[in-house]
Amino acid sequence: MKVINIEGVEAEVEQGGTRLRVRADFVEDVNVGDYVLVHAGFVIQKLDENEALETLRLLEMLGMGVQSTPVAEG
């Protein structure tokens, strides 16, 4: 999920139109714009942006119903 807002120890994350408020204080240096793994209402890991976008793309191809953010061409 992508972090779109941080307030104190909570982060608002979003993926495919779903937004959640989760605890982000168990992982160091979580910032707006980061991609994170979320489990049971907690950020459990930060992800490399390219890896996160590729994973979302693969899940979409497999028909998992996850819509990815377009990857910038470069």
Short description:
The chain is built from one helix and five strands, in the order βββββα.
Low-confidence parts: none
pLDDT averaged over residues:
87
Summing up helix and strand content along with how strands pair, one would put the structural category as alpha+beta
Largest sheet, spatial ordering of strands: 1-2-3
Helical proportion, percent range: 10-25%
Beta-strand content bin: 35-45%
* Morphology call: globular
What number of structural domains do the residues give? 1
If classified by CATH, what would the architecture be?
A: Roll
Top CATH class? Mainly Beta
Alpha-carbon distance between the two ends: 23 Å
Using only C-alpha atoms, the radius of gyration works out to: 12 Å
CATH topology descriptor: SH3 type barrels
Number of DSSP-assigned strands: 5
Q: What does the main sheet amount to?
A: 3 strands, antiparallel
Number of DSSP helical runs: 1
How are helices and strands ordered from N to C?
EEEEEH
Write the layout of secondary structure elements.
Blueprint: E1 2-7, E2 10-15, E3 18-23, E4 35-39, E5 42-47, H1 49-61
Antiparallel strand pairs: 1-2, 2-3, 4-5
Describe this structure in words.
With 74 residues, this protein is an alpha+beta fold. The chain has a single domain (2-61), classed as Roll (SH3 type barrels), CATH 2.30.30. It has one helix spanning 49-61; strands spanning 2-7, 10-15, 18-23, 35-39, 42-47. The strands form two sheets. Strands 1-2-3 form a three-stranded antiparallel beta sheet, with no helix packed on it. It has a two-stranded antiparallel sheet with strand order 4-5. A hairpin with a 2-residue loop joins strand 4 and strand 5. The protein starts with a strand and ends in a 13-residue tail after the last helix.
